[in-house]
Write a structure and sequence with these properties.
single chain, about 270 residues, mainly alpha, about 75% helix, globular
């Protein structure tokens, strides 16, 4: 089944393949948000473990799916070979740093008064959606850039690796959808409205994915920089957003083991499929 999916995605337009892959990741966010129809609340230990899992997947994907291929496909030897990855990584982190300072958002598990970005009177739920949206921009970009790199024929970029990345991102999107929908439900929103806001947080992924694939196909020399850019953005999100969100209660050990599990699973998928 998976081999058929990989073969199909390899045979179609790479921008379309990136769109399908990021629609899949969006769909798993929606699936996570749909849990609001079946549950009245969330177990905090399970939730912190799931957030830790999210961080582990993102860190593993940043190296195995993005940084390592970026270094492999860069010309030169020694220090010169790693410069494109280093520059791209820094620019990706800097880009998310700027968004973090400008975009109003609220970390999961944080109080409203701890909201970040430009001060606004926006409701807590809107700020939560924007926080998860911030997570999803580099994730969609990473998938799109990798599919574009495969189509451009760059060494180190493989269709199996791109599919593994999409699956990993999709898996860690599941708790993110739940993380937006459930607090809204607790605050009195209807199940339908809670679901709609939960899945809406990932709508940027297909947009970022298509833009990433198009950019790489149009300006092929930027691929090593683009892969590392996505990695830098994802690592920034993990360190600045995801990890602090798991350290607000007494389940930090569970979150840590979730992180380890997410890292291992993503590493296995990337190496196995790539």
């Amino acid at each position: 089944m998976l081999d058929q999916v990989i073969h199909y995605l390899e045979s179609i337009n790479p921008i379309l393949a990136a769109l399908y892959a990021t629609l899949f990741t969006w769909g798993l966010t929606a699936l996570g948000a749909s849990m609001v129809f079946f549950f009245k609340g969330m177990n905090r230990a399970v939730f912190d473990g799931a957030l830790g899992f999210t961080g582990g997947v993102m860190v593993a994907a940043s190296f195995w799916s993005l940084l390592n291929p970026a270094i492999e496909m860069s010309p030169g030897e020694g220090f010169s070979k790693v410069i494109p990855a280093a520059v791209g990584f820094f620019l990706g982190a800097l880009f998310l740093f700027g968004l973090d300072k400008i975009l109003p958002h609220l970390h999961i598990n944080f109080n409203t008064k701890e909201a970040e970005g430009v001060k606004t009177p926006w409701h807590r739920t809107t700020l939560l959606v924007l926080a998860i949206t911030l997570h999803n921009i580099p994730e969609g970009l990473a998938v799109g850039v990798l599919f574009g790199g495969v189509a451009a024929g760059f060494d180190g970029a493989t269709i199996g690796g791109a599919v593994a990345l999409a699956i990993g991102i999709g898996l860690q999107n599941f708790p993110e959808g739940f993380a937006v929908a459930m607090p809204m439900r607790r605050q009195g929103a209807s199940r339908r409205k809670s679901f709609m806001y939960g899945q809406l947080s990932a709508i940027v992924e297909p947009i970022a994915g298509v833009l990433g694939a198009w950019a790489v196909l149009t300006f092929q020399p930027i691929l090593p920089y683009a892969l590392a850019f996505a990695a830098g953005a994802m690592i920034f999100v993990v360190v600045e957003e995801v990890i602090p969100e798991t350290q607000r209660d007494k389940y930090t050990d569970i979150a840590t083991m979730g992180f380890i599990g997410g890292f291992i699973i993503m590493m296995i998928m990337d190496v196995g499929l790539g």
